[in-house]
Amino acid sequence: MATEPAPISFARGAPSLDIIDVEGLRAAADRAFTNDPAGSFSYGTSVGYKPLRAWIAERHGVSEDQVLVTNGSMQADAFLFDTLVGDGDAVAVERPSYDRTLKSLGGRHADLHAIELSEDGVNVDELEALLEAGTTIKLAHLIPNFQNPAGYTLSAAKRERLVALARKHGFVIFEDDPYVELRFSGERLPTMLSLSTQGEVVYASSFSKTVCPGIRVGYLVGPADVIAKIAALATGTYISPNMVAQSIVNEFVRGGSFDSSIATVKRALQERSTLLAQSLRTHLPDAQFSQPGGGYFMWVTFPEGVDGDALFEAAAERGVKIVKGSDFLIDDAKNAIRLAYSGVTPDEIDEGVQRLAQAYASL
Amino acid sequence: MATEPAPISFARGAPSLDIIDVEGLRAAADRAFTNDPAGSFSYGTSVGYKPLRAWIAERHGVSEDQVLVTNGSMQADAFLFDTLVGDGDAVAVERPSYDRTLKSLGGRHADLHAIELSEDGVNVDELEALLEAGTTIKLAHLIPNFQNPAGYTLSAAKRERLVALARKHGFVIFEDDPYVELRFSGERLPTMLSLSTQGEVVYASSFSKTVCPGIRVGYLVGPADVIAKIAALATGTYISPNMVAQSIVNEFVRGGSFDSSIATVKRALQERSTLLAQSLRTHLPDAQFSQPGGGYFMWVTFPEGVDGDALFEAAAERGVKIVKGSDFLIDDAKNAIRLAYSGVTPDEIDEGVQRLAQAYASL
Q1: Are A94 and A122 in contact, with CB atoms under 8 Å apart?
Q2: Is B142 helix (H, G, I), strand (E, B) or coil?
Q3: Which of B9, B17, B31, B41 to mutate to test the interface with A (most CBs of A within 10 A)?
Q4: DSSP bridge partners of B111
Q5: pLDDT block averages, 10 residues each, chain B of length 363
Q6: Which residue of A239, A243, A261, A264 is the best one to mutate when testing the B interface, meaning the one whose CB has the most B CBs within 10 A?
Q7: ipTM score
Q8: pTM, two decimal places
């Protein structure tokens, strides 16, 4: 009897444990509990742990009242949507985009407009045409760096055009930027937040990808009046976010562990993405993809007619987990999948791709 | 020129730092990070950190699928209300009751029915009459032990009657029980959850009062189908609650720090409540109150016509913070205040009450 092969997951958009700085976290917790037990263990307020809020404000060159630190950035998204998006409001999203965001907006009965995404980011002409045709967009949700699921990055020129469009048409850009620190090739581009002049942008990021996901610390940066509204909503929801976790993150980022942790993560991601691309070229020549310059994800498309949902099933039967491309779309296209290389170790990659190729051949 | 007196706060429903087990928390964090780095630092699922969930299930004698661990119990309340309370639904609350709960329900446009609270708990006859008169109550929110703001405890007989009423009339009892562990006199009473036979009760509690508030770990226990619905809502809101914090709490409660921490807290609360009662009898003979057998709070009423809101202002001018009784009511009564003895140190109490008496005399 053949033994089951060990499962290999290209599905998890999360770091493997070997690239989490456990000792750095332990030391940060120890310092946090020594340096500020009152701040760590007492109720805080809904804006978050003050020293961490100050660190984030300084990093983005904004005032502290423009920052709110939350229990992970999904919670930040939920607060922002509750504040800005009403029933039936038009919201522009990328095509494809993060499935949880699509669901969250759909659950709030937003009228979603999916704008095609290319390797240099969302199709700004298409968005502009939609606006010029009279659609009043309330919010545009954009993941500018190493997008989830595509791995693509919005060009500098498009960032500038988008901020100008938002200013002209009065919509808010929600710049959802959890992967910004994970660039392993090419040059860092300015955030749309830094290009905004009249409060056009609300920016979100998180420490899930740079410290660890289990710490659940995310944040919003935006106009002070929007942040104040969200802070009131947050007070009524949970009084204060997790002070213990935010105090640990504060010590982690201020104590030198942050840069070394990011360097470790980036080195691992670059190695894994390179191995994944090589394996795909060798074993799955039908797979079309663009090798990302950072982040966790690769968007892999197959010739038209290939059923990515069926590939998902066939791969699962061979002990390989992937995510269906259709999860990231609000239309019926199916010839794509998302591969995450963040949660696989290097030695699993080639074996995983070989199994995926067998699954593909079986379709 | 006279110097300002140091402020004394009877407003904070939170433990003072001297009764938080900082070293126990440090040791628990160290063990958590050593024993289960993967579980502590990775994404979890919305039901919470599994070992802590198992501990809670065992403590309440329920199965694990009846437990959901959240980012503090206010967040648990919000999920429960979102799941069970629709626009215009009738909800019974205690009079007085916790201001944040009243606001949270009011914000969801619930039709609130305030049922008078006595020293032995809510007036069950009044609730029964309301039900018999044809009002379809969806949910009854009750804080059974050392109620916030009153400090009163629901009697065993009333607990049984309430569960029977819920069964007969088909409403859900929301047993909101954060103070249960803080009993310093009298005998522990059975939870309504333990008396329920047909899923009449959803129970909430938290580690804010037994470990520390900044850790933001609360939980719900209820029928598995209700918990599953809330788990889906929680996934869409924040993916998973704080795994680092829950893993620390898990080590804290399993490692022996829990009982000693509770013993420390109870000893301090008993001393403080006794001192507060003595000071009130000495300096403010008009104050009517019942000395609680546990918890943080004392509900102090004054003769009719006394304006508690004005007393709040006059006390503030003398450097004493209290909470207006009117914050805990949805009607216009004003002759009460809430005094919390959890956040004051023993040496502040008599001085604080003397200032309060001066404020009272100034009205």
Answers
A1: yes
A2: strand
A3: B41
A4: B90
A5: 80 93 96 97 97 98 98 96 96 97 96 98 98 97 98 98 98 98 96 97 97 97 98 96 98 93 96 98 97 97 95 97 96 95 96 98 96
A6: A239
A7: 0.95
A8: 0.96
